[in-house]
Amino acid sequence: MSLLHVDDVVVQFGGVTAVNHANFEVDEGTVTGLIGPNGAGKTTCFNVITGLQTPTSGRVSLDGRDITRMPVHRRSRKGIGRTFQRLEAFGSLTVADNVRVALDIHDGFGGLFRSVDNDIDEMLELVGIADYANERADSIPTGTARLLELARSLATDPRLLLLDEPSSGLDESETEAFGELLRHLAGEGRTVLMVEHDMDLVMNVCDVIHVLDFGTIIAQGTPAEIRANPVVQKAYLGYEDAPEPVGAHARTDVGDSGSDSGPDSDDDTKVLAL
Amino acid sequence: MTAFLSYTVIGLFTGAAYAIAASGLVLTYSTTRVFNIAHGAVGMVFAFVYWDLSQRQGLPVWLSLVLVLLVMAPLTGVFIQRVLTPGLGTAPVGVSLVVTVAILVGMIGIATQIWPENSAARSIPQFFQGDLIHLGGVIVTPQQVITIVISAIVAGGLYVLLARTRVGTAMRASVDNAELLSLYGGRANVVAALAWAIGTSLAALAGILLAPIIGLQYYDLTLLVISAYAAAMLGKLTSLPMTYVGAMGLGLAQSYVVGYLQDIPGHDKLGGLPACVPALFLFAILVLLPQAPLRIGQVKGIISAPVPTIKRSLVFGVLLVVGVIVMASGMADSTLTNVGTAIAYSILMLSLVLLTGYGGFVSLASFAFAGVGAVVYCKVDQPNLLGLILAIVITAIVGAIVAIPVLRLTGLYLALATLAFGQLMDQLFFTSQWAFQFDNPLTAHRPSIFGFSFGREGRYVDLMAVMLVLVALVVIAIRRGRLGRMLIAMRDSQAACGTLGLDQRWFRVGLFAGSAGIAGLSGALLAGLRVTISSSTFIYFNSLILLMIAAVWGVTSITGAVIGGAFMMYLPVAQSNYPTYAGLMFVVVAVGAVILGRNPNGLTYWMFRVPGWIQDSLYPVLADRYPGLALKARAFEVSGEEDEALVPVDAADAGHNSGEVTSDVVASR
Amino acid sequence: MSVPILEVIDLHAAYGRIEVLRGVDLRVPKGAVVALLGPNGAGKSTLLKVISGQMEQTSGDIHLGGVHVTGAKPDDLARLGLTTIPEGRSVFPNLTIEENLLLMSYAGVPAERVFETAYSYFPRLHERRFQLAGTLSGGEQQMLAMARALTSDPALLLLDELSMGLAPLIVDELYETVARIAQSGVSILVVEQFARTALRVSDYAAVMTGGRVVATGEPDEIGSIMADVILGGAA
After folding, report:
1. To 5 degrees, how large is the angle CA B237–CA B238–CA B240?
2. How confident is the model at residue A152 (pLDDT cuts 50, 70, 90)?
């Protein structure tokens, strides 16, 4: 039984269709990736699932119950948590207080007589930002702020976590640790749906990947299936006459780890300088 | 039937004038996203200017019109857009409201300074006065015909400008996306300036057309903004045709109310109703508006004024009370009244600290809520703790009732709803038989609590000081506790609060009610202090002055509230001492608010920084130059340290602009 | 060797504390089409924003046609011949097509000529000239946006993600227009995440990741490494 159903959702802004009959499911206890080129409608999907955007048509259901018209805060009570692509940390509060607010909101009046200090420490330890506990959230690095948003969301004990580009701003070792954290959360029985551009992370961590293009799901499958899928390649690289499988060309790594072929980054105008 | 036609003609006339004003408001708001609360006030000032030119100085009418409408008003509009409000379109709503309210106060200051109330009555004659037109039994004045014709010309002119010219097209384009317009090579700044020039000129035109009918007065014409706003709301502040429909509907409704009210038994008790039609119309439209989406895109973290610990506040509080008791024992009664008034105003300021300083919402009706508190206290006639508590609770309920219709909407609508509420209170409630009646003072009895009587002036002021400290402690406790954190979280990111499970609509109503409750207490205490109290204490304009002073002294700290309260008390005292400069004082306050309004911490923030500055910058220099000072300077250091402790970690770092919006994308893809 | 139409030297830019450009060096020779590729978040769009004057850099220099233009305003640059088509819907949705075209004349070409050129390239726009741009399909909107590139006679054209959210056929059509503009001798810097599409029309290509240009070269050369850059080479 899948936890989340996105059923034929359409979102239109004026004449532009951002999400076009998107259909996908997220199974309980999995880490699921939602990938696709810029403008494919990923964040809009997240906004629809969390209730920040009302879909033009279609249905979203959690646990088989229709939540399409439910207000944002009630969906959170039903167990949907999220982080944001553009940071939404509470900049005027400290890191610890960001989590404290989340706990306060989650506990309601029940939390009035309970000390939450231990819970806060626990959350911050879990995501690995305990060192920043007393700093203002608008003075910490981007990657840390993303982890803070994760900790804050975890404080509301969500069943379904939506993470919007959580690893941007993290360095390589932090990303690795983050991957492990995601597996840990899935091991706890939480369900993670993540929009992510770091393909290494997506391929290593996700159980299932959905590929969104022009607002429609064009492929889904395991990381290996997705990587080998020519349709996905086309979506990412543009359309040419014939699809080419990855790796058909000489493999040259020009990623973050530096470049072997091609001019180096620091004096890179050689070719352009005529 | 004839009566009906007459009312219709009057309604069309009023509606036409509203339409002219409202279209100016729409033009300026939609091109720059700055809502000009001073729109009516600008029209008022230019009605005075027109009177001055055409009547006092005797210039020909046509020349006066040309000077006002084509030269002075447009230049004023450009000045407001370029100098007073640049960049406010993307600032938090609270900031742009404070700045435009400051312009309103400044306009009234200018008017009262140049054309003081005491001189002979001024009036603008109607155009072609006396040449009545008979239209099938209905008498129509040339003024009415001219106004209706002019409004049609304005509508046609705006249509041609916006639909048929490039710069007009650019104006509409900048509504959508000013940044894209500049990529096209269009000058977004020039377009905005032009919109303000035209908008201001239209405000002036409406003022000049209406002044002969409703009189050349400071406050009535200023409230034209409510009518214009109500009409513009029908077009969601962007559609000019709908704005015209709204304006005409409003004008007719108002005219029929005036006309037919006298047929209703008991109409004499509803004398203020016609003036309230725009405000009621406005509330009706607000209730019908759809839910606003939560804003995604964060307001940058805000540097707050220091929040002292409860313990430290207690110490300061006790010191304050002891200080007041000692001082009060040797004071004349008149001085005591001033001290008491300052304390009441400080409590009223604290209601703004909670609502605006912590919550980020603006209320333009603080005094209206205080007035409700005063009426409740006088009417229940329980000179004890119960009376005060009832004043608080009932005012809080009234606050909630005002907030509920707008709880789905954004801060701008909440603020404007409070302005309308303030006007309703002024004209309908306070003057009614249930409240003060027509400037008929109510009597309040000073309370006795736990067997202590606070009947004597000095004793009563002591009680007020205790109340001030208690309210301050409550406000600090809220700020330091869960609620305060949530308020700040809501201000920083609505979207995040929503996805964490917070229902912000009711939170907002609760905040508004709490703030109103504090205002109610302030009003009740003020009533007890004055013993007899009338509606004139609570006129809406005072609420705007209060907001200005809050902006100047800072609306985020208790210190700012106390200083601001004293200032609020002193302003009218100073004005009556130096009547020749009364208007100028408003202008000074307004200019201060324009300058300081962008930082909600106000002057108080800089005061808190003085000890640190002395220690970090001044002391090393002095100690270098005068080694002998070292010992004295160490004393500085100690006191500096103590004050530093007032400043928690989150206030230590200056330099950021507060409340700068980095983005406000409603739905980012 | 002529002066390049665009030269960017060690450009840094940041959104608040988040540094997005970390020393970008880039040249666009006169008359050339340069494709700027790279994954999401590499800083491509930010680079265009800084070049077009919409955003201020923290350090570094920009030269347009050999002239130092750091700090110039977007409207001034637009009137001097820099045409920028930003990403997303770069038309005014609540104006008609004809009104959109009318505003394009701000760049210096008389309105009559703008209409003439636009309608001759895109007859479909003429058919719908009184329709609101917001009611057009995504592809038609992008066509309208491209009309500005065609009609404003630019010295340098900056194109950001023309293909975003559009169907493949329409993307092809748009890039045919780009090729046509290029043939008329206009220098173009085109940002695109669909590498192959952009490489087809370009003379040179540069790859950005992490706020820097990490590779430049001939289109073929760059094309062969793009799959790895974007989908990742990890096993």
Report:
1. 100
2. very high
Q: Find residues 117-136 of chain C whose CB sits inside 8 Å of chain A.
A: 134-136
Q: In whole angstroms, what is the distance from residue B59 CA to residue B64 CA?
A: 6
Identify which of C1, C171, C231 has the shortest CB distance to residue A236: C231
Contact A235, A199 (CB under 8 A): no
Q: A265 CA to chain B: closest CA distance, Å?
A: 30
* Residues of C with Cβ-Cβ distance to B170 under 8 angstroms: 103, 106
Number of structural domains chain B divides into: 2
**Tens of pLDDT along B627-638?**
665 544 444 443
Could you give the CA distance from residue B528 to residue B525 in angstroms, rounded to a whole number? Answer: 5
Rounded CA separation B42/B73 (Å): 8
Q: Which of B256, B219, B221, B207 is nearest to B12 (CA)?
A: B256
pLDDT in tens, B427-447: 888 877 777 765 677 888 888
pTM of the full predicted structure?
A: 0.81
The residue out of B515, B541, B567 marking a domain boundary is B541
Q: Which of B477, B508, B541 is the last residue of a domain?
A: B541
Would you state the pLDDT for residue B563?
92
Interchain pair B500, A87: CB under 8 A: no
> Which residues make beta-bridge pairs with C207?
C37, C215
B9 touches chain C (CB under 8 A): no
CATH number of the domain encompassing residue B179: 1.10.3470
Name the C residues in 82-121 with CB < 8 Å from any A CB. 87-89, 93
Note whether C165 contacts A249, CB cutoff 8 Å.
Answer: no
Range of the domain at B98: 2-288
Q: What is the pLDDT at residue A132?
A: 92
Helices B540-553 and B93-114, packing angle to 10 deg? 120
Q: Which of A254, A259, A267 to mutate against chain C (most C CBs within 10 Å)? A: A254
Within this chain, do residues B402 and B492 fall inside the same structural domain, yes or no? Answer: yes
Nearest to C163 by CA among A239, B376, B154, B18: A239
Per-residue pLDDT tens over the stretch B394-411: 999 999 998 887 777 777
Cβ within 8 Å, pair C103-B176: no
**Is the pLDDT reported for residue B546 higher than 90?**
yes
Mark yes or no for CB contact C218/A271 under 8 Å: yes
Per the domain annotation, does B355 fall within a domain? Answer: yes
Residues B146 and B79 reside in one and the same domain: yes
| Distance, CA of B633 to CA of B619 (rounded, Å) | 7
Q: Is residue B589 part of a domain?
A: no
Let me know the angle formed at the C-alpha of B10 by B9 and B11, rounded to the nearest 5 degrees.
Answer: 90
Together in a domain, B505 and B363: yes
Is B242 in the same domain as B361? no
- Which among B297, B491, B668 has the least Cβ separation from residue A43? B668
Q: What's the pLDDT at A244?
A: 38
Q: Are residues B242 and B327 in the same domain?
A: no
Domain ranges of chain C: 13-221
Mark which residues 192-221 of C lie under 8 Å from A by CB: 192-198, 200, 204, 206-207, 209-210, 212-218, 221
**Predicted pLDDT of residue B298:** 46
* Residue C10 DSSP SS3: strand
Pairs of CB atoms within 8 A across A/C: 182
Do B192 and B236 have their domain in common? yes
Residues B227, B274 within the same domain: yes
Residue B390 located in a structural domain? yes
A236 and C197 within 8 Å at the Cβ level: the answer is no
B389 within domain boundaries = yes
Residues B271-312 pLDDT 10s: 677 778 888 888 888 877 766 666 665 445 565 666 777 888
Q: Specify the CATH class of C13-221 in words.
A: alpha beta
Residue A242 has pLDDT above 60, yes or no: no
Query: What is the average pLDDT across C191-213?
Result: 86
Select from C89, C196, C221 the Cβ nearest to the Cβ of A237.
C196
Among chain B residues, the shortest Cα distance to A115 is held by: B482
B498: which 2 tokens? 């929503």
**pLDDT single digits (tens) B226-275:** 888 889 888 877 788 999 999 999 999 999 988 888 777 766 666 677 77
Same domain, B356 and B393: yes
